[in-house]
Amino acid sequence: MKFTLPNVLTISRVPMMFVIVALMYSDWHGAATWAFWLFIAAALTDWLDGLLARQANQVSSFGRFMDAVIDKVMVIGLMIALVNGGYFEGYRITAMLLLLLIIAREFTISGLRMAAATRGLVVEADAGGKVKTFVQLNAIGWLLGARMFARDFSDLFTGSEDTMVRVVHWGGLGLYVLSAVLTVTSGYAYFRRHGHVVKD
């Protein structure tokens, strides 16, 4: 494995996730804002590492593998922190059930990929999987954004302006539900195309 810039950017999302979670659970003024913008930076590395790898002709098996794995680690880790941190308010149980559904899907598809690998086959991420990840990242971003506005910019969002905070929060909830739906549909699509590797 070569420590190319794209690979370093990919791996950097793991320590960034730990810092984001620590900030999410911090009470000092500005912590929510730092959590939001650090998450935006982490999400951008997911796009930037692939772009740089292609431009510099540094696409590698390690990079493709770790990019997919670290995406899952970061998304699931942050979603657990969101549920446990009260970001879903009165919908915490529903959010946890949807999260368990997402986790079950990710483990199932990972198992499918391992079964395919034993036969020398590679199950690449398809358009449905990429859209699912994009929606998941957006859901996390909107929920972090709502907490940022509510905690660090409460003076700006009072009275009627508080409606904007609610809209952002409900947008995050809607995207979270949509990401769970896409998780199921994309998982079904994977098994429809590649399920033959586990039939015997």
Average predicted local confidence, pLDDT: 86
Which regions are unreliable across 5 or more consecutive residues at pLDDT < 50? none
Instruction: Name the CATH superfamily classification.
Output: CDP-alcohol phosphotransferase transmembrane (TM) domain
Distance between the termini: 34 Å
Extended strand count: 0
Q: Give the tally of structural domains.
A: 1
Largest sheet: none
Helix content: over 70%
Helix-strand string: HHHHHH
In one word, what is the shape? globular
CATH architecture annotation: Up-down Bundle
Structural Rg: 18 Å
Q: What is the percentage of strand-forming residues?
A: under 5%
Structural class: mainly alpha
The quaternary state of the protein chains shown equals: single chain
- The CATH topology name reads Four Helix Bundle (Hemerythrin (Met), subunit A)
CATH first level: which class? Mainly Alpha
Count of DSSP H/I helices: 6
Short synopsis of the structure:
The protein has 200 residues and is an all-alpha fold. The chain has six helices and no strands.
Description:
The protein has 200 residues and is mainly α. The chain is built from six helices and no strands. It has helices spanning 5-24, 31-55, 61-84, 92-118, 127-152, 162-194. The chain is globular.
Chain-wise SSE layout:
Blueprint: H1 5-24, H2 31-55, H3 61-84, H4 92-118, H5 127-152, H6 162-194
List keywords for this structure.
200 residues; mainly alpha; Four Helix Bundle (Hemerythrin (Met), subunit A); 78% helix
